[in-house]
Amino acid sequence: MRWVKDNIDKVKANVTARAVAVDVDTAVSLYDAYLALVTATDDARRQRNL
């Protein structure tokens, strides 16, 4: 997914060329939210284990 985020213009062009109904911006946004949750969870675990 990181590649998609780093190459969003290429992915959007590919999606358009394939005539696929995918909202790339939403997918990247959801990925960012997921990463934020993973980071928060890891931080909470780290604090618990101190």
Would you mind describing this structure in some detail?
- The protein has 50 residues and is an all-alpha fold.
- The protein has one domain (2-48).
- It is built from 3 helices and no strands.
- GO terms for molecular function: nucleotide binding.
- InterPro entries: SerRS_1_N_sf, tRNA-bd_arm.
Number of strands: 0
SS field, number of helical segments = 3
Rg, nearest Å: 15 Å
**Overall pLDDT, averaged?**
96
Spans of at least 5 consecutive residues whose pLDDT stays below 50 are: none
Q: Total domains, how many?
A: 1
| Form type | rod-shaped
Estimated structural class: mainly alpha
Sheet bearing the most strands, described?
none
- N→C terminal distance: 32 Å
**In percent terms, what proportion of residues is strand?**
under 5%
What level of helicity do the residues show? Answer: over 70%
Order of helices and strands: HHH
